[in-house]
Design a protein that fits this description.
This protein is an alpha+beta fold. It has two domains: 161 residues, no CATH class; 118 residues, no CATH class. Helices cover 13% and strands 25% of the residues. It is built from five helices and 16 strands. The strands form four sheets. Strands 12-1-13-14-15-16 form a six-stranded antiparallel beta sheet, with no helix packed on it. The structure holds zinc ion (2 copies). One zinc ion (ZN) binds next to strand 8.
């Protein structure tokens, strides 16, 4: 089954031509509970991991959250996202690579206190013998270990929400308000950027943007992946909840139906208070340095 974002309720670029140069394409992964195989693109699923490469571990410093005492010693990273290039239109895979794997250490790290992501690019064909994906440590905080989900990738167009430049917000704010009064559509919640787990596009910030800078070229890094706790909230569902997940009862709200509820938190993640982890890379530097940030409402 596919997942399709409903057609945009208004034509953003006709109403606000100033936004046209800021358009970006993102790939919503639309994770839903499932049993992906290691060959599949997935969220929280088994990985196509080469047997001759040790499973990655973290020996960094871990912090306690909500009474979860960090595991002492090396922690096995847990799979977050595996995506084949064919499922990620528009995402610039490095030459020779067609598989993206993102894992993270499921404990709080450093000053932003969030799971520590790691990014691997590889060629699926080059993986010969496959290492079985190990289970997470029994003590790992459940809210940081995504449940296995099948994905239903879909490319969507986004415009900046929190990333809207201040001078443009000053210029457009009055017209955003007018549109909302006339139609009920709120630019930031309904028209700007897709909620949920996605590749590319604009990060799904819940606070002010914090773009990491590349340590090599000193430019702002590129957004690779947003791992959001929820696929929609009480506002964003109105325009972003896929057609297939909408309640069958006319006028119902999504949490009134089983499909709607299943679509909200399929991976069972709770990052802080329903926040997100944002993974960045520098696509100008061949080393592709990685950065990350975390925020929550
Ligand atoms: Zn760690
Ligand atoms: Zn760079």
């Amino acid at each position: 089954m596919t997942r399709r974002t409903p057609p945009r309720p208004v034509d953003v670029e006709t109403l606000f031509p100033e936004l046209r140069p800021l358009r970006r394409e993102a790939v919503r992964l639309h994770p839903r509970a499932g049993r992906p195989s290691r060959e599949d693109s997935s969220v929280g699923g088994p990985l196509l991991w080469p047997a001759d490469e040790p499973w990655p571990v973290c020996d960094g410093e871990h912090y306690e959250r909500n009474g979860n005492t960090p595991y002492e010693g090396e922690v096995r990273l847990v799979p977050v996202v595996q995506v084949h290039s064919g499922d990620a239109p528009g995402i610039p895979f490095p030459q020779g690579c067609d598989l993206l794997q993102v894992l993270w250490c499921p404990y709080d790290h450093d000053e932003v206190r969030c799971p520590l992501p790691r990014v691997y690019w590889r060629s699926a064909r080059a993986v010969d013998a496959v290492e079985a994906t190990p289970p997470p440590h029994a003590e790992a905080p459940a809210a940081y270990v995504p449940h296995p989900c099948a994905v239903h990738p879909e490319q969507v167009t986004e415009y900046p929400g929190q990333d809207l430049p201040e001078e443009l917000f000053d210029a457009l704010g009055g017209r955003f308000d007018q549109l909302e009064q006339e139609t009920g559509w709120h630019y930031q919640y309904h028209l700007a950027q897709a909620p949920g787990i996605k590749l590319g596009g604009y990060p799904g910030w819940t606070q002010e943007p914090v773009w990491p800078e590349c340590g090599w070229c000193e430019q702002r890094m590129d957004h690779l992946l947003t791992v959001a706790s929820w696929e929609y909230d009480g506002a964003s569902w109105r325009s972003w909840l896929p057609v297939e997940d909408r309640p069958t009862v006319d006028g119902g709200e999504p949490w009134c139906s089983e499909q709607g509820r299943a679509a909200q938190n399929p991976a069972g993640l709770m990052l802080g208070d329903s926040g997100g982890v944002y993974v960045f890379e520098c696509w100008s530097c061949p080393e592709r340095p990685v950065g990350h940030w975390f925020d929550c409402p």
